[in-house]
DNA sequence: CCTTGAGTGGACTGATGAGTCCACTTTAGT
DNA sequence: ACTAAAGTGGACTCATCAGTCCACTCAAGG
């Protein structure tokens, strides 16, 4: 990605990425052309290739990174401070709300499929997102343990991985079926497991 | 889908669907052309359109249905008789094995994204698959309850939904990162929850 | 003011790939 | 055997779209 060196250039580059993200959410990757993006971003063909010399793939990757950054940001401040039952509850609601609002768009999943598993860049973005996400869940579980709210024997690694998997699956089922039942079940089930461990502690 | 009326015709039609499924798994939907499919299936362009007058979309949908049928079939006979701890364990291993072997191909997910959320057919296939899958998990959980192995208070609906979500998410994380940790965590966590409920019963 | 390079517009090209068409062959029923 | 319908081959068309190219404008530093 060719970085812009003037304010005007940076603005154009940002307009392209954000415009592209919009169009991609609306139409899906496979139905979006560079010309759609160009139109939405009020840019010209040459600007696209000026800032993303690698062409469509490079632009798509930039959009994927941009979307990935939003995923965690949208869960804050809740995700960052999961140290009480109330904060877990607020986080749960924030996740449900975010994905129900997003509806049947899965920018990241779609982008990933298009750019292809082969490209190392795409895989790195997703891997890093998952790593950070799970770490924050695990930190939250350990915070409950530290506060004496959850048994010290609670398997944080396994449960945080399972919870993350449940969220991903819940979201992808919702994409396909339009129904958020599974997402809610995964979240509630994860939290219920924590509470169960608290009850056994008492 | 125009159904064939002779044995030869049926053979050709089957060759097309299965050949298409193969190529799609290998190359991914967005990099597969009708010509790739035609070549693999030893068919000609006119045959493709003879049996799938709706063109590529219709063919893709037929492949999606074919893949969906395999998903549950591949988990049998285990999935159909989850009435003991041993059968749950065998099923768990079968799922992990199947998806690890499949690697980073997600025929169904990719197909769905390509055909598009808008088409009612695609959505129906996924919805029905999820419904059946969850039902079999729930049946298994109730079988354990009936056998006195799991507490009657165990929330079968929520847990089967969460387990299904965990599997889906585990698989999709594995697609993106190449790592099956999350899938295993989701499965083991679900089964562990059942066992926990058994311990409380004792 | 002039120069330099970043930034911009949009016409053009070339490849690709979905879908059409028609001539030909095979199959099955009478 | 005859014939009608089913099945088959593959050349051809036509639209689309990523990517190129070049002429132009603008802003900043000297």
TrEMBL record, chains A, B:
Ranges for domain HTH tetR-type: 10-70
One Pfam family it belongs to: TetR_C_13
PROSITE patterns the UniProt entry points to: HTH_TETR_2
Any one GO molecular function term: DNA binding
Keywords: DNA-binding, Transcription, Transcription regulation
Record-annotated DNA-binding residue ranges: 33-52
Top-level taxon in the UniProt lineage: Bacteria
InterPro entries tied to this protein: Homeodomain-like_sf, HTH_TetR, Tet_transcr_reg_TetR-rel_C_sf, TetR_C
PANTHER family per UniProt: HTH-TYPE TRANSCRIPTIONAL REGULATOR YJDC (PTHR47506:SF1), TRANSCRIPTIONAL REGULATORY PROTEIN (PTHR47506)
UniProt name for this protein: AcrR family transcriptional regulator
Organism of this sequence: Streptomyces eurocidicus (Streptoverticillium eurocidicus)
């Amino acid at each position: 990605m060719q970085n812009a060196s003037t304010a005007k250039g940076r603005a154009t580059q940002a307009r392209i990425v954000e415009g592209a993200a919009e169009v991609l959410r609306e139409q899906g990757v496979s139905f979006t052309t560079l010309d759609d993006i160009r139109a939405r971003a009020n840019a010209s063909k040459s600007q696209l290739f000026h800032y993303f010399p690698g062409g469509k793939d490079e632009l798509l990757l930039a959009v994927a990174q941009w979307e990935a950054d939003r995923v965690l940001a949208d869960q804050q401040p809740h995700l960052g401070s999961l140290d009480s039952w109330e904060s877990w509850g607020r986080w749960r609601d924030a996740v449900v709300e975010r994905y129900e609002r997003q509806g049947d768009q899965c920018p990241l999943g779609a982008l990933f499929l298009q750019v292809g598993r082969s490209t190392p860049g795409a895989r790195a973005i997703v891997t890093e997102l998952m790593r950070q996400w799970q770490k924050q869940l695990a930190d939250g579980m350990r915070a409950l343990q530290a506060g004496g709210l959850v048994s010290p024997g609670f398997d944080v690694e396994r449960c945080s991985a399972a919870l993350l998997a449940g969220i991903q699956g819940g979201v992808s089922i919702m994409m396909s079926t339009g129904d958020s039942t599974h997402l809610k079940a995964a979240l509630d089930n994860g939290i219920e497991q924590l509470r169960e461990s608290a009850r056994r502690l008492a």
